[in-house]
Design brief:
The structure is a single chain. The protein is mainly α and about 160 residues long. The protein has three domains: about 25 residues; about 60 residues, Winged helix-like DNA-binding domain superfamily/Winged helix DNA-binding domain (Arc Repressor Mutant, subunit A, Orthogonal Bundle), CATH 1.10.10; about 50 residues, no CATH class. About 65% of the residues lie in helices and about 5% in strands. It is built from seven helices and two strands, in the order H-H-H-H-E-E-H-H-H. Strands 1-2 form a two-stranded antiparallel ribbon. Helix 2 crosses helix 4 and helix 3 crosses helix 4. The longest helix has 30 residues. The protein starts with 7 loop residues before the first helix and ends with a helix.
């Protein structure tokens, strides 16, 4: 027998630990399920993107760290906190609570968001055609031969994959 009558407090202690582990596991599974279902990345407002850039640069941060990076001490803590909570609601950041303090960290990478931006640009302005986008960039950016050659090599390399 694992527990005896005198071990009742120990039994309940083990039961509480196992219940806590089960709850954490279920939260994790739910989080993964929701993230896989909601693979579409929302577009950020200018303010959200400015704050998100700081979070990507810092990795893990508090709201006061973001305010410090913004370089304007007159920005109210509540304003930045609201923007960060919106980012969390949109699925870009998550947090770990330490009492009343929240440490935020990105859960959508800069590369994922950039990919979303490029796909959006392609579909909105270039009919989904990467060739039209590259053609536009070559014509509008006045690329020199070296840059054009590097671009062609990259395209060829990616085409072979």
């Amino acid at each position: 027998m694992l527990f005896t009558a005198g071990d009742t407090p120990a039994f309940f202690h083990v039961l509480i630990i196992l219940t806590t582990i089960l709850i954490c596991f279920l939260r994790f599974v739910t989080y993964i399920y929701v993230m896989k279902r909601n693979k579409t990345i929302q577009t950020l407002t200018k303010a959200e993107e400015e704050v998100m850039q700081i979070i990507w640069d810092l990795g893990r941060c508090l709201v006061r760290d973001i305010i410090e990076e913004l370089g304007d001490p007159d920005i109210p803590h509540s304003t930045v906190s609201s923007v960060v909570r919106l980012l969390e609601k949109k699925g870009f950041v998550d947090h770990k609570a330490y009492g009343k303090t929240h440490e935020y960290f990105p859960i959508v990478s800069r590369e994922e968001y950039a990919g979303h931006g490029v796909q959006s640009l392609l579909s909105k302005y270039f009919g989904g055609s990467p060739r039209m986008l590259v053609s536009y960039l070559v014509q509008s950016q006045d690329m020199n031969l070296k840059e054009l050659n590097e671009l062609m090599k990259t395209l060829e390399k990616n085409q072979k994959k």
